[in-house]
Amino acid sequence: MDQKHQDAHNELKNTTAEATRSGNKALIKPFPSRFAITLSFSSYPCRCRRNHRRLCIRRLQSTRSSEVMGKKRKEREAQSDDDDSSKSRTKRTDSDKLVVKPQLLPSMIKNKDKRSAVYAKIKHEKKVEKRKNAKAREALENRALELGEELPPKKIPRTIENTREADETVCKPDDEELFAGNDADEFSSILTSERAPKVLMTTCRFNSTRGPALIKDLLTIIPNAEYYKRGTYDLKNIVEYANNKEFTSIIVVHTSRREPDALLIIGLPNGPTAHFKLSNLVLHKDLKNHGNPTSHKPELVLNNFTTRLGHRVGRLIQSLFPQDPEFHGRRVVTFHNQRDFIFFRHHRYVFETKENKQIDANDKSKDTEDGKKQLKGKIIARLQECGPRFTLKLTSLQHGTFDTKGGEYEWVHKPEMDTSRRRFFL
C-alpha cells in the first residue's frame, strides 16, 4: 500500500473511532474513490473488513446521489427563473390581458355542506340564465309580430331520434301500396270489426309465480282474453286447439330463472308470429300509488311505428284489442316505440276539482262573512298508472304460425345488423 492510501486509511480509522466514542455519525467521511476503499481493508479482520466496506460504500453512494440531486434541483430552479423572466418580458398590457379563472367543480369540494351550497348556486345561475334567454327570445318574437316579420327559427335539439339513418322502408302518408296491403293482410278482418278479437294466454312448461302474475295483469287489460294452463302440451297442439275454438291470437309468456324474459304473440289462423324480449317488468301490485282499472274496453295508443316492419308489428298489437273503445271508462293502453324499444304503459284518466283560495282585495276586515276567502273550483286532468309496465324488443318476425323447423322468417335481428347507434328498424 502506497503512502497516499495509507494516510487516507489512517484518517478514516481515526475518524471512525472518534465517531464511535462521541456517537456522532456525521464525522464519518467516505473515501475519495472506490479503489482507495478496496485497498484499505487489508489491515482489518474479516468481519470488520466486510462491515467497514458496506459502511463506506453506502456513505459514498449517498454523497454522490445528493450531489446529483442538488445539481438537478439547481438546474430546474435556473430554468424556472428563465421562464419567469421570459414571461415578464412578453407580458401583455392590461387592456388585452387574458385572465383565465380556474373552474371550481362541486365534485372537487370535500366538505358536504359547502359542496351542496356551490352546486345550488351553480344550478340557480343556470336557471336565471335560461329564464333570461327565454325572455329575450319572447321579446324578439313579439317584436317580429308587431313589425309583421317572420318569427326567428326555433332551435331544435339534436337527438339520436331525429338524426337516425335514412331508411327506405319508412311509411309515408300517401303510400297507396301500403293502404292496399292493409286491406288484404291477416289482421284486416279484426281491424275492420268483422271479427271480435279473442286471445288465448298461456305460459311456458316450466314457469314460476311471476309468469302467471303477469298474465293475471294482462287479463285485466286485454278484453276477451282467457288463460289456459300449459301443462305438457306442445305449442303446435295449442295452436291447433285455438284455431278450433276460434281464437284470433295466442300470447305465450316465457320464464327464465323465475323471471319473465320473453313474449310470443301468434296471430291466428295464418300468423304472423312475433317474438319479443321482455325486460324491466313491474307488476300491478308493485307499483306505488297505482290505480285500479275498470272493465271497460281501453283506448289504444301506438307511437312511432314508422317503417314497414314497425307498421306490421303495430297492426299485430292492434289486433289484440277491440276496435270500439269505451271512452267513458277513461282507460288508455300505450305502446310507445323509441329506438326499437317498445314501452308498455297502462293508465286511467283522473278528473279532479282543485280548490283555489282567493282573497277579496276590497274587503280588508277580518270578518269572513262577506266572502273574504272564496273557494273557486278548477277542474284538472291527470293520468294515474294502473300497471303493469314492461319493455319489449322485437327479436324475430315469422311468417305463419309458430314453426321452428320449417318456418319462414320475415325478419330476424342479428348482432351484425347493429352497425350504428342511429340505425333503427321499427
Any idea what the radius of gyration is?
42 Å
CATH superfamily label of the largest domain: Brix domain
Helical proportion, percent range: 25-40%
List segments where confidence is low: pLDDT < 50 over at least 5 consecutive residues.
31-47, 89-96, 363-373
The separation of the N and C termini measures 96 Å
Structural class: alpha+beta
Output the CATH topology of the largest domain. Answer: Rossmann fold
- Level-1 CATH class name of the largest domain: Alpha Beta
How many domains make up the coordinates?
Answer: 2
Put simply, the count of helices is 9
Largest sheet: 11 strands, mixed
CATH-scheme architecture of the largest domain: 3-Layer(aba) Sandwich
Biased composition (Polar residues): 13-23
Region (Disordered): 1-25, 64-99
GO molecular function: rRNA primary transcript binding
InterPro entries: Brix (IPR007109), IMP4/RPF1 (IPR044281)
Structure summarized in a few sentences:
The chain is an alpha+beta fold.
Task: Write structural notes for this entry.
With 426 residues, the protein is of the alpha+beta class. The chain has 2 domains: 3-79, no CATH class; 176-360 and 372-417, Rossmann fold (3-Layer(aba) Sandwich), CATH 3.40.50.10480. Helices cover 35% and strands 23% of the residues. The protein contains 9 helices and 11 strands. It has helices spanning 3-22, 34-39, 46-89, 112-147, 176-182, 188-191, 210-221, 235-244, 308-318, and strands at residues 199-203, 225-227, 249-256, 259-267, 273-282, 299-303, 331-338, 341-359, 373-385, 389-399, 408-412. Strands 1, 2, 3, 4, 5, 6, 7, 8, 9, 10 and 11 form an 11-stranded mixed sheet that branches. The longest helix is centred in the N-terminal third of the chain and has 44 residues, at 46-89. The protein is elongated. Residues 31-47, 89-96 and 363-373 have low confidence and may be disordered.
